């Protein structure tokens, strides 16, 4: 991914893609003092741009560091990066980390860096293909107790168990893995939140030990606008067999129906389709949609 044309914004200026490098003694690399965002630009506008910048700063605070750029500066830097790369529909990846001045668990005075990369990332599938649904494995690792880790931070360190879980799932032929939480409740996927449908109601786990996704909250609002009742509650694995439909939500996944979770089968139906289509309309800039 490092060997391509284009520009990456780094600590206040745009640098050629291949020159956006860090030293091997970077604290973020050794001790996971790094946080990131995942955003999407649709038709030249980053969807919920400011919310993502604010979440990035919040994620850093939870790891005890402050990003030396304001929300407004981060917003402007993201737009400048898209412009430099000539992109209107793209994935946007800000990342902030502790630098290399001191090597050790404590690195209180290390410089805090911020970089922003953008790349083309079209929605993979047409709606008909998406409606077939993806297959999910059940992950071995659980989301940690909020008393064990800053579980609401989009912290690089929390993705270690996600990568392991996703690799295991892919090796078995699944698209992704469903993770339970430390109490054994259904939690989320490795990079997306999860929703279920039963008897015309939408059910989703309470986001108390994993990322309360920006897409998750958008989808809850879209459901309510449609008059679909949304129940945020504790969902146990024993219930997985009782749902009719399932879908996952995230900036990258958008709204993607699920056809299988381990031994359980779902048939993506009208409610999933309605929510998927409503999300597409929601993220499409209004002028472009007209
Ligand atoms: N959970 C995890 C672990 C994620 O990585 C993501 C993607 N950022 C989400 C949920 C969904 O968050 P969002 O809707 O804000 O992209």
Automatic annotation (TrEMBL):
Transferase: present as a keyword of the record? yes
Tell me one Pfam family matched here: Aminotran_4
Q: What is its EC number?
A: 2.6.1.42
> Gene3D superfamilies, alphabetically?
3.30.470.10, D-amino Acid Aminotransferase, subunit A, domain 2
Instruction: Name the chemical reaction catalysed here.
Output: L-leucine + 2-oxoglutarate = 4-methyl-2-oxopentanoate + L-glutamate; L-isoleucine + 2-oxoglutarate = (S)-3-methyl-2-oxopentanoate + L-glutamate; L-valine + 2-oxoglutarate = 3-methyl-2-oxobutanoate + L-glutamate
- Which enzyme class, named as a word? transferase
Q: Which positions carry the signal peptide feature in this UniProt record?
A: none
Q: From the UniProt record, give the pathway where this protein acts.
A: Amino-acid biosynthesis; L-isoleucine biosynthesis; L-isoleucine from 2-oxobutanoate: step 4/4; Amino-acid biosynthesis; L-leucine biosynthesis; L-leucine from 3-methyl-2-oxobutanoate: step 4/4; Amino-acid biosynthesis; L-valine biosynthesis; L-valine from pyruvate: step 4/4
Listed GO MF terms: L-isoleucine-2-oxoglutarate transaminase activity; L-leucine-2-oxoglutarate transaminase activity; L-valine-2-oxoglutarate transaminase activity
One GO biological process this protein is involved in is: L-valine biosynthetic process
Q: Please list the cofactors this protein needs.
A: pyridoxal 5'-phosphate
* Alphabetically ordered keywords of this record: Amino-acid biosynthesis, Aminotransferase, Branched-chain amino acid biosynthesis, Pyridoxal phosphate, Transferase
The source's domain of life comes to: Bacteria
- Which PANTHER family does the annotation name? AMINO-ACID AMINOTRANSFERASE, AMINODEOXYCHORISMATE LYASE
This molecule's function is given as:
Acts on leucine, isoleucine and valine.
Q: Which family does it belong to?
A: Belongs to the class-IV pyridoxal-phosphate-dependent aminotransferase family.
Q: Which protein, by its recorded name, is this?
A: Branched-chain-amino-acid aminotransferase
Q: Which organism is it from?
A: Phreatobacter cathodiphilus
